[in-house]
């Protein structure tokens, strides 16, 4: 038995070698040159690894659209303004998919492009549609290549890399494993360029990250993520019961086999309902309600629904079914939920019992402001 095979069977990384549905995320800096063009050899090297994953269904979440568009547009570096970022993404996305199509075709494999925005992971109907599309691609033997729709997803361009998207896609497709590949070989307790920085081989929970410095800038200057976004993505996935391996793209084969490379993040929770995961990590709150101390305790300690009697104020403009924040008297966000009333209706409900509201306003008002099944607690 080889060292790699032995490592794959070792108990230290459960859920890696036997994972059947795997989401692999690759960063921009691992696919492109520093000047911004696609590096065909790097793309081919990644595809060589992915097509050899016999018996596995792979979803490839690939950054690189903006970076791939830099050289063709004569841009020396990633532009700071949104309009030119979107232009670069428009040019680069076609080049990126064409490169993947040609690379997978060497093995007689087909790829399908799936472009997502935060809306597609935060609205339940879009979420279900995205799942059906990806599931059908699997059924037809097609490898999905997922990317943010950077030409229109302005928030995604501003705020991050594809790491969070990859974690949400892993939950969306009910993946068994998430592998995050970049130009950094692992998580370190400080800047890996500094002498004495220690590689963290395993993270079993938040306590293992105490004192760890998380960088936010990529080395090559063509991506937008950093180690912080990868750790945040790992927290999303592991909190939903999905193990995560963070490794260098050059070690992709070992990372997928279960060899002791990079950093392994162990699952910390169980799979949650899809709507609760997107509610916590992908939705954009449209407003907020302020809770008194009794309502805070009922929601956080007893798992109760939010009733009108426990509300002291309302902020923002929202309609029935939209996500809102639940805040305590000090303004701290304690939960997020789907609201059952329009913002304009809530002021006349504040502090009143559902029985009183039903008597004065009709039976339609004898209901929760946020039902406990549509509510997720947020850790401070």
Radius of gyration: 23 Å
User: In this structure, how is the largest beta sheet organized?
Assistant: 8 strands, mixed
Q: Tally the helices: what do you get?
A: 13
Strand order of the largest sheet: 3-4-2-1-5-9-10-8
Structural class call reads alpha/beta
Strand content: 15-25%
Number of strands: 15
The amount of helix comes to 25-40%
Spell out the helices and strands N to C: HEHEHHEHHEHHEEEEHEHEHEHEEEHE
Ends: how far apart? 47 Å
Which residues sit in consecutive blocks of at least 5 with pLDDT less than 50? 1-10, 156-160, 217-224
Mean of pLDDT? 86
What does the overall shape look like? Answer: globular
Topology of helices and strands:
Elements: H1 3-9, E1 21-26, H2 40-50, E2 57-62, H3 65-70, H4 82-105, E3 110-116, H5 118-122, H6 124-139, E4 142-148, H7 154-159, H8 163-172, E5 177-182, E6 187-188, E7 199-200, E8 202-203, H9 227-239, E9 244-248, H10 252-257, E10 263-265, H11 274-281, E11 287-291, H12 293-301, E12 311-316, E13 323-327, E14 333-338, H13 354-361, E15 375-377
Parallel strand pairs: 1-2, 1-5, 2-4, 3-4, 5-9, 8-10, 11-13
Antiparallel strand pairs: 6-7, 9-10, 11-12, 13-14, 14-15
Helix pairs in contact: 2-4, 8-9, 8-11
């Amino acid at each position: 038995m080889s060292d790699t095979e032995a490592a794959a069977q070792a108990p230290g990384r459960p859920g890696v070698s036997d994972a059947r549905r795997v989401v692999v995320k690759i960063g921009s800096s691992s696919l492109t040159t520093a000047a911004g063009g696609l590096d065909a050899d790097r793309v081919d090297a990644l595809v060589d690894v992915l097509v050899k994953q016999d018996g596995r269904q792979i979803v490839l979440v690939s950054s690189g659209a903006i970076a791939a568009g830099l050289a063709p547009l004569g841009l020396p570096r990633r532009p700071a303004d949104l309009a030119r970022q979107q232009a670069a993404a428009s040019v680069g996305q076609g080049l990126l998919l064409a490169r993947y199509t040609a690379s997978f075709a060497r093995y007689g494999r087909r790829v399908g492009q799936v472009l997502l925005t935060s809306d597609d992971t935060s609205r339940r109907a879009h979420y279900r549609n995205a799942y059906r599309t990806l599931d059908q691609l699997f059924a037809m033997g097609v490898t999905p290549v997922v990317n943010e729709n950077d030409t229109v997803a302005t928030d995604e361009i501003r705020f991050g890399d594809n790491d969070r998207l990859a974690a949400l896609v892993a939950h969306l497709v009910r993946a068994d494993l998430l592998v995050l590949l970049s130009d950094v070989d692992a998580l370190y307790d400080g800047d890996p360029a500094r002498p004495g920085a220690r590689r963290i081989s395993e993270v079993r929970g938040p306590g293992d990250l105490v004192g760890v410095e998380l960088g936010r800038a990529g080395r090559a200057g063509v991506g937008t993520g950093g180690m912080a976004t990868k750790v945040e993505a790992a927290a999303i996935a592991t909190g939903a019961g999905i193990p995560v391996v963070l490794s260098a793209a050059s070690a992709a084969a070992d990372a997928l086999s279960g060899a002791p490379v990079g950093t392994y993040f162990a699952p910390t929770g169980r799979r949650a309902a899809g709507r609760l995961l997107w509610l916590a990590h992908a939705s954009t709150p449209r407003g907020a309600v302020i809770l008194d101390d009794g309502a805070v305790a009922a929601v956080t300690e007893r798992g109760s629904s939010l009733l009108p009697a426990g509300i002291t104020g309302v902020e923002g403009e929202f309609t029935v079914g939209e996500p809102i924040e639940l805040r305590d008297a000090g303004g701290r966000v304690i939960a997020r939920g789907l609201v059952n009333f329009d913002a304009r209706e809530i002021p006349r409900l504040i502090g009143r019992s559902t029985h009183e509201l039903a008597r004065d306003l009709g039976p339609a008002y004898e209901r929760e402001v946020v039902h406990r099944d549509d509510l997720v607690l947020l850790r401070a």
